[in-house]
């Protein structure tokens, strides 16, 4: 009987420890429009997802992938959501911002000069390919 009680207690502790650690969720947010309302909605989605899972005791890893007109989200002095991107990058531990190199190259060619990105941005070879890779890794896909 003592052995059964010890086994039950061990299982209960194990289950409690697993629950206390929570789950890790992965979310890819697609940003391909330069509409301030859409950009703000994308950031709202990220904040709301983070708030929800944090309240559940879970962790969430969010990658926002910007390409096409959406790359303007990550251009300092041009982004209508620059302050929010900077604040969220500081506030949310596991948020990242991917910038499409193909789009950036096209924008630079058209402008005739280099275009700087916000320090929060990480350049990826292709925004579309990055979204594919993230989905293949099990990330949930969100498009505002």
What's the quick description here?
The protein has 144 residues and is an alpha/beta fold. It has five helices and five strands; from the N terminus they run αβαβαβαβαβ.
- Give the termini separation: 57 Å
CATH superfamily: DsrEFH-like
Q: Taking all residues together, what is the mean pLDDT?
A: 90
Helix content: 40-55%
Neighbour order of strands in the largest sheet: 4-3-2-1-5
Structural class: alpha/beta
Essential attributes:
144 residues; 49% helix; alpha/beta; 5 strands; Hypothetical Protein Ychn, Chain: A; five-stranded parallel β-sheet
Write the layout of secondary structure elements.
Layout: H1 2-21, E1 24-31, H2 36-55, E2 59-66, H3 82-91, E3 95-100, H4 101-111, E4 121-124, H5 127-136, E5 140-142
Parallel strand pairs: 1-2, 1-5, 2-3, 3-4
Textual characterization of the structure:
This protein is α/β, with parallel strands linked by helices and 144 residues long. The chain has a single domain (22-142), classed as Hypothetical Protein Ychn, Chain: A (3-Layer(aba) Sandwich), CATH 3.40.1260.10. Helices cover 49% and strands 20% of the residues. Strand 3 (95-100), helix 4 and strand 4 form a beta-alpha-beta unit. 26% of the residues are buried. Mean pLDDT is 90; it is low at 4-19.
